[in-house]
Specification:
Layout: E1 9-13, H1 18-28, E2 32-38, H2 59-65, E3 69-73, H3 78-89, E4 93-96, H4 100-106, H5 110-116, E5 121-126, H6 141-147, H7 151-154, H8 169-192, E6 196-201, H9 202-209, H10 211-218, E7 237-241, E8 247-251, H11 258-265, H12 269-272, H13 279-284, H14 286-297, H15 302-308, E9 315-318, H16 322-326, H17 329-333, E10 337-341, E11 347-351, E12 365-366, H18 375-381, H19 386-395
Parallel strand pairs: 1-2, 1-4, 2-3, 4-5, 5-6, 10-12
Antiparallel strand pairs: 7-8, 8-9, 10-11
Organism: Pseudomonas mohnii
Protein name: Formyl-CoA transferase
GO molecular function, one term: transferase activity
């Protein structure tokens, strides 16, 4: 982990991925993050299972929870809430994604916690924001950030169902942007001593990600068209299938890259073809050019094209599988993929949170906590005795 948040204590009362991911990013940056889970059952993501996984590592839980300490409190009991309040008194940041009715019931609204710690940064993630008919509705990544915000619509081809996401794009984007907002609030507090309430919402994350399309629509300009590969209106920004059934993508947005691309694919006749003489002509005849390129890319295997394009002036990319990403030298040498220690003998690999400091990789990372793993440790830090811990555990206020 990095050291830029050393000395910052974060208390999280959140589940699933979105807000826990924000706390995880703060842990990556060096904060001491204490995850507070329900004494009965814990974070719901602990009970989600990926088909085929052996159960030793849960990707749904780990994606938002590595690097934290974990305690289990029953916040419906006064004794459990009192332990949370004591933690808040010494904390810098509090995060939650519970709905408004649950926050009020548990006494963890901003006014409840800022009263105990006026310097606190109170961060809240919701599905649809604080106002309007859906203010207390639950939200998840795909329906809230992806479908309602227009991304699924813009990717739906005629007579086909809307595509699914490849992963928790809204959750993870929302998490890292919420972490950045918290960092900004902490910076202001360093200057002024003033706490803050920071809000983010999955729907807001989705509308931000769709900014280009929303802007274009607002001024009456067509957005990026929904097209099949063979019907692309921009053949030089398209995907192409290789002889062995793999795919590459090219993104040749600069006019000056055209001659070099033609040389790399060994089709010099394209330079003299009047249909493709300049950018305007290539755009007007995009389907024809796409047809030519489909034939070209089908003449070599994926590995051959990857090797040939290493010297291409323009931008291109192999369409890699997750397994290939985990062994990609470009990702590994830059520290974009890192090992996370489960214990002294076992690890898993993961993409790190997207920031680096002092030109250094992130360093050692630890897996997420076991359920209630650090309850006694953390509560001892705020002064509880062994006898008090036993009494709280006997009453069910802690686990």
């Amino acid at each position: 982990m990095y050291d830029v948040m050393n000395g910052v204590r974060v208390i999280e009362v959140a589940e699933h991925t979105y807000v826990p991911a924000a706390a995880m990013v703060l842990a990556d940056w060096g904060a001491d993050v204490i995850k507070v889970e329900r004494a009965q059952g814990g974070d719901a993501s602990r009970h989600m299972r990926l088909p085929g996984a052996d159960g030793r590592v849960n990707p749904f839980f780990e994606t938002g929870n590595r690097g934290k300490r974990g305690i289990a409190l029953d916040l419906t009991q006064e004794a459990g809430r009192e332990q949370l309040y004591r933690l808040i008194e010494g904390a810098d940041v509090f995060l939650t994604n519970l709905r408004a009715d649950a926050r009020a019931k548990l006494g963890i609204e901003p006014q409840d916690l800022l009263k105990r710690n006026p310097r606190l940064i109170y961060a809240r993630g919701t599905g649809y924001g604080l106002h309007g008919a859906m203010a207390n509705d639950g939200g998840f990544d795909y329906p809230t950030a992806w479908c309602r915000a227009g991304a699924a619509f813009n990717q739906t081809l005629p007579d086909e169902p809307p595509p699914k996401q490849p992963g928790s794009i809204g959750d993870l984007t929302g998490g890292v942007t919420l972490a950045g907002a918290i960092a900004a609030a902490l910076f202001r507090r360093e200057r002024t001593g003033k706490g803050a309430v920071v809000d983010n919402a999955l729907y807001m994350v989705g509308t931000y990600l769709m900014s280009q399309s929303l802007l274009a629509t607002s001024i009456g300009v067509p957005t990026i068209p929904i097209e099949r590969q063979k019907d692309s209106s921009f053949a030089l920004a398209n995907n192409y299938r290789t002889r062995d059934g793999r795919w590459l993508t090219i993104c040749l947005l600069m006019e000056k890259w055209w001659p070099d691309f033609v040389a790399h694919i060994e089709r010099p006749a394209l330079l003299s073809d009047p249909r493709f003489k300049d950018a305007a002509s290539r755009h007007a005849n995009s389907r024809a050019l796409g047809g030519e390129l489909n034939e070209v890319f089908a003449t070599r295997d994926y590995a051959e094209w990857c090797e040939r394009f290493k010297t291409l002036e323009g931008v291109w990319s192999p369409i890699q599988s997750p397994a290939e990403v985990l062994t990609d030298p470009q990702a590994l040498e830059n520290g974009f993929i890192s090992s996370v220690d489960i214990d002294e003998h076992n690890q898993y690999q993961v993409g790190v949170s997207p920031a680096q400091f002092d030109e250094q990789p992130i360093g050692r990372l630890m897996a997420g906590p076991g359920f209630g793993e650090h309850t006694d440790e953390v509560l001892r830090e705020i002064g509880l005795t062994d006898a008090q811990l036993r009494a709280l555990r006997d009453s069910g206020a802690i686990r």
